């Protein structure tokens, strides 16, 4: 993937936001959460935990960062720290859930975190490749962003529940989703940088 040399990668943006937070700017943490949360969601969900557990793990990861912020010597390493912490906690939660399942035949005591999930370095690379997609996603109308997030973070989206939460008819969710994805696709295909990622 070719990236715009003027655009800092995710690790650098995270470091800048974290440094600002440690220097006393509360908005630094807000920027850091906005930048990194989508990646943490992906890392956590790849460990096979439920949506509710994923929410708890991601929230706990941010709380741990606040608690240990002064112990992170190099702000440039904060992204790796977040990924490693989230992945470890997600694996622990998944391990506990499997162990508590009645009649579970598989002994998971020695199971390691999912080998197919990305290493911190691999996750950073994947995040950089997806940064352009995320940039255009953020530019969608709020209704589109909310709808796509709601559906994306659900194992099996309950359209009745989604419709109630968003105040829209059940029958309009599918067409609205299609229009939102079409807007995103158009934004990407008209961005010359997106062509660089598919060559």
TrEMBL record:
<dbReference type="InterPro" id="IPR036388">
    <property type="entry name" value="WH-like_DNA-bd_sf"/>
</dbReference>
<dbReference type="GO" id="GO:0003677">
    <property type="term" value="F:DNA binding"/>
</dbReference>
<feature type="compositionally biased region" description="Basic and acidic residues">
    <location>
        <begin position="98"/>
        <end position="114"/>
    </location>
</feature>
<keyword id="KW-0238">DNA-binding</keyword>
<dbReference type="InterPro" id="IPR013324">
    <property type="entry name" value="RNA_pol_sigma_r3/r4-like"/>
</dbReference>
<dbReference type="InterPro" id="IPR014284">
    <property type="entry name" value="RNA_pol_sigma-70_dom"/>
</dbReference>
<keyword id="KW-0804">Transcription</keyword>
<dbReference type="InterPro" id="IPR013325">
    <property type="entry name" value="RNA_pol_sigma_r2"/>
</dbReference>
<dbReference type="Pfam" id="PF04542">
    <property type="entry name" value="Sigma70_r2"/>
</dbReference>
<protein>
    <submittedName>
        <fullName>Sigma-70 family RNA polymerase sigma factor</fullName>
    </submittedName>
</protein>
<dbReference type="InterPro" id="IPR039425">
    <property type="entry name" value="RNA_pol_sigma-70-like"/>
</dbReference>
<keyword id="KW-0731">Sigma factor</keyword>
<feature type="domain" description="RNA polymerase sigma-70 region 2">
    <location>
        <begin position="32"/>
        <end position="92"/>
    </location>
</feature>
<feature type="region of interest" description="Disordered">
    <location>
        <begin position="92"/>
        <end position="122"/>
    </location>
</feature>
<keyword id="KW-0805">Transcription regulation</keyword>
<dbReference type="GO" id="GO:0006352">
    <property type="term" value="P:DNA-templated transcription initiation"/>
</dbReference>
<dbReference type="GO" id="GO:0016987">
    <property type="term" value="F:sigma factor activity"/>
</dbReference>
<comment type="similarity">
    <text>Belongs to the sigma-70 factor family. ECF subfamily.</text>
</comment>
<dbReference type="InterPro" id="IPR007627">
    <property type="entry name" value="RNA_pol_sigma70_r2"/>
</dbReference>
